[in-house]
C-alpha cells in the first residue's frame, strides 16, 4: 500500500514538474525578443531628430504633390528614418497614444529585399511581449492602387501565433481611412488586398511603384487628370 502511495506521489510530482516545465518554456518563448527588434532602435539624440525630420519631409512632400496635382511624384524612406519618426514625431502627433490604447507600443520596422519585418510591443509590464510580423508586399499587376500584403510569419516572442485577431484590427483601421481590404490565402498564408481610394469611382492618383529594397522603401506614382465634364 505504501509502495502504491509512493508511486502515485512520484507520478503526480513528475506531472507537476512537466507542466511547470512546459509553462516556463512557453513563457520563455513568449518573452523572447527578436534580435533585430533591439538592433533597429535608433538612439535618442540629434541624429534621430534629423532622421525623423527627413522622414516627415518625404511623406509631406509626396502628400503635397498628390494633393497639388503634380504629374508625377516619388519618394524613398529608409528604415532608420521611419524608426526615428516612430520615436519622435509620431509621439508628438498623438498617434502613439492611439496605439497605446489598444496595447501597442514601440513599433519598429526593417526593410529587406522584397519584404519587411514589423514588430511592436504588446501589453504592459511583465505581461508584455513583442509581436513580430514577416511581410511581403507588392503591387497587384492587374488592378489600380491595389497593394498585396502577404503575412509570411506571425510571432509572439518566438512562438507562432494566429493572425485572425490582428487581421480584424487592421481591416477595421483601414476602413476608417476609406481603404478597402479583402482577404485570401496563398500557400497557407493570409494575404490582404488593400485598395486605396476605394470610395472613389475614379482615383485621383495611380501607384506605379512600391518596392521594398535592402534598408528602404521606394514609392512612386502619378496623378490622374479629372475626366472632362462636357
Q: Can you describe what's shown?
A:
The protein is an alpha+beta fold. The protein folds into 2 domains: 1-31; 34-223, no CATH class. The chain is 39% helix and 34% strand. It is built from 7 helices and 10 strands. The strands form 2 sheets. Strands 2, 3, 4, 5, 6, 7 and 8 form a 7-stranded antiparallel β-sheet that branches. A hairpin with a 2-residue loop joins strand 9 and strand 10. Helix 3 (46-68) crosses helix 4. Residues 2-29 have low confidence and may be disordered.
Short description:
With 230 residues, the protein is α+β, with helices and mostly antiparallel strands. The chain is 39% helix and 34% strand. It has helices at residues 2-31, 35-39, 46-68, 79-87, 89-92, 95-100, 164-176; strands spanning 72-78, 104-112, 115-122, 129-139, 146-156, 159-160, 180-186, 189-195, 205-213, 216-223.
- Number of E-state strands: 10
Tell me the number of helical segments per DSSP (H or I, 4 or more residues long): 7
Helix content percent band: 25-40%
Let me know the largest β-sheet.
7 strands, antiparallel
Relative strand content: 25-35%
Radius of gyration: 23 Å
Q: What integer is the average pLDDT? A: 78
Strand and helix layout:
Blueprint: H1 2-31, H2 35-39, H3 46-68, E1 72-78, H4 79-87, H5 89-92, H6 95-100, E2 104-112, E3 115-122, E4 129-139, E5 146-156, E6 159-160, H7 164-176, E7 180-186, E8 189-195, E9 205-213, E10 216-223
Antiparallel strand pairs: 1-10, 2-3, 3-4, 4-5, 5-6, 5-8, 7-8, 9-10
Amino acid at each position: 500500500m505504501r509502495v502504491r502511495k509512493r508511486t502515485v506521489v512520484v507520478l503526480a510530482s513528475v506531472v507537476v514538474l512537466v507542466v511547470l516545465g512546459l509553462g516556463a518554456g512557453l513563457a520563455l518563448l513568449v518573452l523572447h525578443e527578436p534580435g533585430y527588434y533591439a538592433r533597429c532602435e535608433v538612439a535618442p539624440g540629434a541624429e534621430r531628430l534629423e532622421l525623423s525630420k527627413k522622414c516627415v519631409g518625404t511623406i509631406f512632400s509626396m502628400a503635397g504633390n498628390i494633393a497639388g496635382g503634380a504629374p508625377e511624384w516619388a519618394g524613398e524612406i529608409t528604415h532608420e528614418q521611419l524608426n526615428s519618426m516612430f520615436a519622435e514625431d509620431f509621439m508628438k502627433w498623438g498617434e502613439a497614444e492611439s496605439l497605446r490604447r489598444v496595447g501597442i507600443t514601440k513599433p519598429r520596422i526593417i526593410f529587406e529585399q522584397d519584404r519587411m519585418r514589423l514588430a511592436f510591443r504588446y501589453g504592459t509590464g511583465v505581461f508584455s511581449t513583442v509581436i513580430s510580423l514577416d511581410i511581403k508586399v507588392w503591387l497587384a499587376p492587374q488592378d489600380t492602387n491595389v497593394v498585396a500584403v502577404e503575412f509570411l510569419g506571425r510571432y509572439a516572442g518566438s512562438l507562432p501565433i494566429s493572425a485572425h485577431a490582428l487581421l480584424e484590427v487592421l481591416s477595421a483601421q483601414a476602413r476608417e481611412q476609406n481603404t478597402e481590404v479583402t482577404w485570401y490565402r496563398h500557400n497557407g498564408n493570409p494575404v490582404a488586398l488593400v485598395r486605396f481610394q476605394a470610395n472613389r469611382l475614379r482615383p485621383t492618383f495611380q501607384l506605379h511603384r512600391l518596392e521594398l529594397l535592402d534598408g528602404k522603401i521606394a514609392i512612386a506614382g502619378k496623378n490622374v487628370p479629372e475626366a472632362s465634364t462636357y
